Structures
1.
Amino acid sequence: MLIDTHTHLDSHKFDDDRESVIERALAEGVEKLINIGFNRETIPTTIALAERYPFIYAAVGWHPVDSIDMKPEDLEWIASLLDHPKVVAIGEIGLDYHWDTSPKDVQQHVFRQQIALAKTKRKPIVIHNRDAHEDVVRILREEGASEVGGVMHCYSGSWETAKQCLDMNFYISFGGPLTFLNARVPKEVMAKVPLDRLLIETDAPYLAPHPHRGKRNESAFVRLVANTMADILGKSVEEIGRITTENAMKCFGIT
């Protein structure tokens, strides 16, 4: 049993074969998926997927790249959706200093607002962090995010940063980049994360694992991430599946 803890099956890149993509995931033993809605367009399509398929759950939030576009009514909308029975987290939220689309101060304000909302609604948070490790950790600490914890999505930082996140009640999730042949640091960091804090994901359709690197990713490929994790840790794929599934169900409150 596997859980893809971060996917975007509502992406337009799946419009021609979404059903087949979902069937392939199920055939590979992916029994649950968490789809991420992150802006005005993808939140409704994420909710629609979760309502259509019993094994798909939803996370909803406002992506840092789109922070400049978020209005007060959008935050109220997200707050109302957090009461939906299939919505298990708020995300993906955080900071992205790579793409120059939203000013840093705006990103940080929107990030803080959503952490506060997560605490009010008692929902874990899914963190997007690109080139902003120091500020992400600082804001998580200042806002008391350890009260709800959550996931460091597609983790790419150092072990020192990972330790700080672990101390704040966060799980560390690895995706396709873990499988890349030159991924020395992610492999070293992953090997140090306690087993009860490890998660796996795809971020499909992005960041396809080896040997599909550069192509469209899909949830079935989460097994390739599990294979790499198993090889590094000297465990069976079945054991990695069991461990990461138990962790995901605990993190997101899925029964």
2.
Amino acid sequence: MGRAFEFRKGRKMKRWSAMAKAFTRIGKDIVMAVKEGGPNPEANSRLRAVIQNAKSANMPKENVERAIKKATDKDTANYKEQLFEGYAPHGIALLIETATDNNNRTVANIRSYFNKCNGTMGTQGSVEFMFDHTCNFRIPNNNVDIEELELEFIDFGAEEIFADEDGILIYAPFGSFGAIQKELESRGIEILSSGFERIPQITKKLTEAEMADVEKLIEKIEEDDDVMNVYHTMEE
């Protein structure tokens, strides 16, 4: 198995464990998608993907519809996606994805977390190059021949395809999202969920005490309402 498989296995138990946090994230994704491409999922591929993710997270249909309606209100603030970079203790690189309607607040908060936990907030581009920006799709595993599927989707950018207990995962570079989404839909293959992740190119092994130092900072950052994802180079 490749790096995407190992990365997914390492994060599986930690990611979006709190349902309220997951719903907040999806709500922001809906606002950004509607503001960008309108409220009609048929004409807005990004919104279509977010609705699939909402269904996968068991978000009630009425919540989704309410979020779409709210997003069309001109008085509803839009969220801007902002990337923050820095180092946790023991030389672990952190890449933080946020969605915020007040960048000054978010910058101040993220900086305070680094300062309180002996980390260092970096400048733009200081650690981003250490991560591969990828997209992924989860589809049902209906006795699919994975090797054959991989061969068919290489032309659309797929780099790694593997199965787990929840279905089949397709990983590809960030820029291949649209092509793979379109091909899956044209074949009538159900997309259970989709998204983007940043996979570290190299990871660093720490002692248990050192890991605790890093996890203290990560947990503090993840508690922030503006934070969508935190990626790191610590071996899990």
3.
Amino acid sequence: MRLLLVEDDNHVAAALSAVLARHGFDVTHARSGEEALQALVPESDGFGVVLLDLGLPDQDGYEVCGKIRKRTSTPVIMVTARSDVRSRIHGLNLGADDYVVKPYDTGELLARIHAVSRRTAHEEATGATETRVLLGPVRIELPTRQVSVNGMPVQLTRKEFDLLALLAQRPGVVFRREQIISEVWRTSWEGTGRTLEVHVASLRSKLRMPALIETVRGVGYRLVAPAA
């Protein structure tokens, strides 16, 4: 898999590139936001994943993330020293697929890279059997992956849409955390649990319907169908 590493620290990039190469990745190193965007021009060979450090010298990392998402659907994993939920949600709202918080374990990073790449491959190989889900004011168009509330479009990331679509399959039914992680992230890795919580929080915020997704303490989540 080709991977675009966006990291301004050459020592960190060299060490990480060596590790990724040992695990079969073909790494391209971009030292700034502008270099990253140049590497992602439409006519370039495709990357499987973009690993984006937010501490860049020329542009705000969140701004770069937003520009990348407008340019390509390639999965983006943010690398950040900011551990608060608000910062993570902001990144997800801009189109990031996942994040890792510094300092991180190399095994954690590799697991997240493989998880987002597996999910992308699965989406490309399969299609939805249904076309539309209506839940009160919420409309989910499965083939086009579009969501609207009261007729107003809501921009969701890949994982946010997958999570909502999964819960919407059976409104009122509790989905275990392990089941959601397996279906949406295609992994059983326990560290993904915190990512799930952030994605749920982001969905509630974007849809402006906090009660739509209910937390079932100690078990998981369920979608509470709103009144029409």
